[in-house]
C-alpha cells in the first residue's frame, strides 16, 4: 500500500473534482493520505476533508509564508485545534527565505510555537525549509537539546550539511516528484544517502508534478510515480520497498492507524 504523506486537498485547484481526485488516488493503490494545514482559517476545510474519509488524516499548522499574519499564534492555539484523532501532526511550519513573504523573526517565532505544540502533543513536526539551512539547523539543534520531539524534513531540497545535522537529531525525510526533475542532482544524491529507515514519500500536490507529467496538475495518484522512481534509485523491489516506506510512515506518524491494502 502506498502512502502520500503530504497532500493539499483543500487547495482551490481541487475544488471542481476533489472526490474524483481522491478516487483516482485509491485506484492507483494509495491507501492513506495526509492532508496539510497551511493557515488557521483553512483548518476547518482541511479537517472536514479528513473527517469525511477513512483513509485521509490531517495536520494543524501555519506555513512560514503566512507567519506574519499570525502575530499572536501560540502553542496553546495549535494544541486546542489538534484534539481530533484525525490530526496526526503539527505543521507545516519552518523557515523559507526564498520568497521573503514573512520576515525571518516572524517565521522563527511561529516555528518555536509549533515546536512547543508538537512536544506537548507528542506528534511529529512537519518542517518546510528553503534557503535557510544554517538557521534551521541551529533552531532544531537548540530545541531538540531542550526537549526532544518527532521531526520530519518535508519535501527535502536543502543541502547535505542540514541533512547531516537533522539526521543526528533523529529526523525523517520525505521526497517528492522533484526527485524526477532533470536538474535535481543534489536532491537525488541526498535521497540516495539517507538511511532507508528514515525515508517517506509525498506529492505535495497540486505542486511538483513528477516527470513525465510535468505541466499537468499534480494529484495524490502521482505518488505512485514518486515511489517507482525512488525504488529504482535505491535498487529496491516494489513489494519490499513499499512495505518499508509504509513502516517508516507509521513509525513517524505513530497515531496513524494501519489500514490493509485493497484486494
Tally of separate helices? 9
Q: Helix proportion of residues, in percent?
A: 25-40%
Number of strands: 8
Order of strands side by side in the largest beta sheet? 1-2-3-4-5-6-7-8
Largest sheet: 8 strands, parallel
Keywords:
9 helices; globular; 8-stranded parallel beta sheet; single chain; 39% helix; 263 residues; alpha/beta
Structural overview:
This protein is α/β, with parallel strands linked by helices and 263 residues long. 39% of the residues lie in helices and 16% in strands. The chain has an 8-stranded parallel β-sheet with strand order 1-2-3-4-5-6-7-8. α3 crosses α4 (104-121) and α5 (133-146) runs parallel beside α6 (160-168). The longest helix is centred in the middle third of the chain and has 18 residues, at 104-121. The protein is globular. The chain starts with a strand and ends in an 11-residue tail after the last helix.
Outline the fold blueprint.
Blueprint: E1 2-7, H1 18-27, E2 30-35, H2 43-51, E3 56-60, H3 75-81, E4 87-96, H4 104-121, E5 125-130, H5 133-146, E6 151-153, H6 160-168, E7 172-175, H7 185-193, E8 199-201, H8 223-233, H9 238-252
Parallel strand pairs: 1-2, 2-3, 3-4, 4-5, 5-6, 6-7, 7-8
Summarize the structure.
The chain is 39% helix and 16% strand. With 263 residues, it is of the alpha/beta class. The protein has an 8-stranded parallel β-sheet with strand order 1-2-3-4-5-6-7-8.
